[in-house]
């Protein structure tokens, strides 16, 4: 079966890239923008309509994703969705002015045909295809931590007020409403435990996760499990000799503790938090840097002294299954804030895909062996995004002198099927997100979403950039 034309990525250069150019004075008009008032605006609208008619008459835009490993013939898009693959459909910048104490923007979730993006003090849902706002919710404080997963369209968020991250709220992301809000812990200002809720004094960051109708909140000296329906506390576990270091959710709830020189991972029983289903104990001196998946359990570990680290896979009962030695060129230091958000890794079934400088490598989780390596641009990180219909989507961000690309790679062989080149006018936007290590790429409903999960500097900071990638 014939394949669509390939678009090889530009060759890397040995010369250092030039300084990042200043952004243009005004953003280019994206599809769906409204012309200005007056007769000139109406003429512009007529001109745009005529161009669209001519484009549609010529066959429209070609779909950029084909089913199956061997690909298929591209099909023309129809109607108002005739946008060339790789072109920006819509983009959103910060809705409120970030400040020194309110500038972190972790959190993005999907429900129906919308993407819900968190900002420092609010959440907004946008239509995936058009970018039209569906709802917006002002929070009762500033984001401290968010659950990386949603459970039945519900997320759990920890908020800061009066300098302390001691409040939590559950949000219905389908309807944009708060379900309940309450204190995480009760203490006075002279309580020594209060410092564990002050970010500037945190020995360990507060973390939250959701799974199976429950939420788990952990801080250095304790953890609490609540019901998502009403916030009712199910259990609380104080840490005396050990220290809580994080939580992960999704397929199951995991609580992480640090006891001396060892890290333990516990699979929580939400109804009986003090009696975990199983416990895994790491090697002496080994730290868990991130939880890449909760079923199967895949941990990113390190010795805490630099180096490439390892991926540790656990069986359902917590028994160690395999270890994967990471290479020195793997990109394991861009993980977004929180324990369970690392765009450099993708776990799908029994395979983990690892982003490397200029490549993506697939490993078998059963035995840790390398399956294949896809080589992309030599000087840019190749992020694994999504596996669908036997193909892995790999995103390589643009630079001031080179366009970005979304490549479909055979999940069986690692061979490139085809590449969609992103538009030239997206290079500066992509580079800003990539160089600050804040970009997390998602592929949903034929749209490549570049999400800012890091720090917002100003009202001009990009929060969501949507690119056609059907």
What's the CATH architecture name of the domain at 139-326?
Answer: 7 Propeller
Classification by helices and strands? mainly beta
- Quickly count the helices: 2
For the biggest sheet, the summary is: 4 strands, antiparallel
Tell me the quaternary state.
Answer: single chain
Q: Radius of gyration, Cα only, in angstroms?
A: 23 Å
Number of strands: 32
Helix content: under 10%
Strand order of the biggest β-sheet? 1-32-31-30
Distance between the termini: 20 Å
Query: CATH topology of the domain at 139-326, which one?
Result: Methylamine Dehydrogenase, Chain H
The CATH superfamily of the domain at 139-326 bears the name YVTN repeat-like/Quinoprotein amine dehydrogenase
Q: Give the low-confidence spans.
A: 1-80
On the 0 to 100 scale, the average pLDDT is: 83
Give the CA-based shape.
globular
Strand content: 35-45%
């Amino acid at each position: 079966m014939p394949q669509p034309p390939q678009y090889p990525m530009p060759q890397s250069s040995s010369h250092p890239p030039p300084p990042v150019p200043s952004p243009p004075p005004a953003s280019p008009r994206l599809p769906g923008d409204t012309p200005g008032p007056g007769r000139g605006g109406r003429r512009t609208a007529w001109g745009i309509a005529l161009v669209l008619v001519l484009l549609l008459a010529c066959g429209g835009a070609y779909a950029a994703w084909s089913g199956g490993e061997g690909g298929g013939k591209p099909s023309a898009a129809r109607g108002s969705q005739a946008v060339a693959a790789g072109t920006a459909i819509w983009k959103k910048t910060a809705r409120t002015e970030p400040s020194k104490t309110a500038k972190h923007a972790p959190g993005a979730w999907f429900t129906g045909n919308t993407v819900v993006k968190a900002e420092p003090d609010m959440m907004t849902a946008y239509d995936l295809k058009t970018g039209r706002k569906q709802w917006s919710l002002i929070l009762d404080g500033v984001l401290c931590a968010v659950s990386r997963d949603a459970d039945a369209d519900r997320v759990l968020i920890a908020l800061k007020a009066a300098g302390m991250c001691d409040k939590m709220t559950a949000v219905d992301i389908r309807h944009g409403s708060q379900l309940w809000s309450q204190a995480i812990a009760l203490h006075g200002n002279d309580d020594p435990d209060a410092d564990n809720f002050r970010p500037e004094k945190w020995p360990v960051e507060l973390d939250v996760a959701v799974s199976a109708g429950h939420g788990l909140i952990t801080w250095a000296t304790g953890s609490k499990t609540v019901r998502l329906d009403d916030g009712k506390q199910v259990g609380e576990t104080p840490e005396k000799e050990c220290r809580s270091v994080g939580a992960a959710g999704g397929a199951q709830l995991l609580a992480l503790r640090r006891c001396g020189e060892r890290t333990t991972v516990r699979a929580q029983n939400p109804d009986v938090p003090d009696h975990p289903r199983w416990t895994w104990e790491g090697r002496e001196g080994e730290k868990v840097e991130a939880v890449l998946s909760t079923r199967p359990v895949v941990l990113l570990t390190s010795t805490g002294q630099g180096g490439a680290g390892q991926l540790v896979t656990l069986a359902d009962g917590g028994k160690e299954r395999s270890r994967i030695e990471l290479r020195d060129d793997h990109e394991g230091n861009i993980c977004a804030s929180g324990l369970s958000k690392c765009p450099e890794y993708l776990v799908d079934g029994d395979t983990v895909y690892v982003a490397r400088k200029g490549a993506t490598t697939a490993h078998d989780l059963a035995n840790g062996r390398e399956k294949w390596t896809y080589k992309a641009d030599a000087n840019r990180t190749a992020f694994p995004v999504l596996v669908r219909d036997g193909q892995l989507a790999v995103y390589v961000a643009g630079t001031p002198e080179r366009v970005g690309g979304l490549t479909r790679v055979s999940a069986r062989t690692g061979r490139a099927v085809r590449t969609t080149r992103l538009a030239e006018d997206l290079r500066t936007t992509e580079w800003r997100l990539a160089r600050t290590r804040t970009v997390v790429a998602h592929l949903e409903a034929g749209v490549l979403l570049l999400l800012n999960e890091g720090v917002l500097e100003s009202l001009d900071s990009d929060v969501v950039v949507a690119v056609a990638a059907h």
